[in-house]
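Q: Can I see a sequence and its folded structure?
A: Here is a first one.
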Amino acid sequence: MLAGVGAIVGFALVGGDDTKAPQASANEPAPAKDPEPASEEAGGNTEASQPSTEQDLGIGDSIEAEGVEATLNGVRILPTTDLDQPIENPDNRFLAADLTFENVSDEAVSVSSLLEFVLKNEEGYSASQTVHTQQKGLAEGEIAPDEKASGEIVYEVPPESRGLQLDYKPFASGGTYTWTIGDAQGIATAPQPEEATSPTPEPTTAASPASETEVAGAAEDYYQAVDREDWAYTYANLDAATRALYPEDEWYLKNQYFADTEGLKLSTIDVVVENSTSDPEVGVTVYRTFKDGTSINRYTLFVQEDGAWKHRFTEEENAIFEPGVPYEEFVAGSSASATADSSASAAADGDINCDEVSQAQAQAILESDGSDPNDLDGDDNGTACDG
């Protein structure tokens, strides 16, 4: 839940005792305390705790620690837009660090952008993380052996920030790996979305297959994130209209509730684009099978926003997630609890009828078991109880 918190406090004190340190103003941070040297009695290891000094990492360099090969691919400044506004200071900038993690071990590993990464300036002050509608996903989560995860971590920094560096502190290693980034003013800014004065090329027949591939890829990436319970990624890749319906904490809690209730692990996924990618909303059907043999087919929407394909909820999906309903009421209420109970009952008994549940509950039951033992989708159109 912490990964999506958008409260930006600029640069804050790294380490130290907050009760003894002077408070920092919005534009003038408090001085950092000198770090204490590592103790040999406490297990301190100079080589492990200071690899950045020896390796002199820069953009494009990789390090390997605790079964993870981490690479800083690049950094960029993301634009301030109507949807992306600095909170602490209107002059602040959004800095995005593009990272790739490869699991080079024989076991699954986890990476946390919030807990393992710190962006600092030359004075040792750290920047809080935020999210941006144009960031390339979120670089974190569980990674299986021989697989990779890529994405961006976004920070809000003052434009005059100097000597920026990105510290990576893997949980198990006890060491710190540092990439030198430089001054904020020397980092390239990503282009703003094109204005109306810059004409958009007419779509051509030859471009359509590539566009469909992009939509299908975005849908597959989204539902892969659902499977690994990466709610920060899914929230960042909702379209603005859907995201406005769900505060971030509500989104995390409700998604985790369904993940814990269903307990399904993805086996295969296939996406079919149902209409032209030139339409304002592109419908897709996502076919998923799970390791226990369960299959779920879901029709949903994707729209192009800020140069990327974002997930837009249908009315049926909003009926299931109940935007604006507090989590406690959501779990205790008839919709959430009945959806979970009805799904279990349908799987066990196969005796649920359309007149016994709401349409949203019927759709959730259908999606939990694509074989439709309750015959809720009599016309085989993918929508339950629509007759």
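Q: Show me another, different protein.
A: A second, unrelated one:
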Amino acid sequence: MIIDSITVSTSRFTRYGSVSGPDDAEDLSGRVIVDRISASGHDFRYRLIPDGIKPVRLALLDSIERSSDAVIFCGGTGLAPSDLTIEAIEPLIEKSIPGFGEIFRLRSLEQVGTRAMLTRASAGLINSIPVFAIPGSPAAASLGIDLILQELEHILQHARGR
């Protein structure tokens, strides 16, 4: 299984540009995600992109074209004007997975209290490929990847009609 891990961060992209891995961009959240993917026995492709609808959609379409089994966007899900990951992804989603965001917020509530209401964590299927959007903090990345990996094979079975 190949999982694309895409960090969305204009400040990191401006500072580091295209990099081959999270360590090259001091990306702690990206490191958490790829480490957990590797530990689960899956392969990953890492990418760092700037915020914005166009960069997110281009990265998503590239992942789909490359037949990724799943795509995880980390970052760009907040309330700042530049946080557009959700706006880029959700119009393309063919089937939403609302339970992912609901469980993410429930678990976040246990960790950060009512600030959890600010998260716009989201998931859905595009061309039968699960696509996830999680906040960019290391704690959120850890929570998100754990939830994703726990159910990813089950999600893929349903998405692929097996």
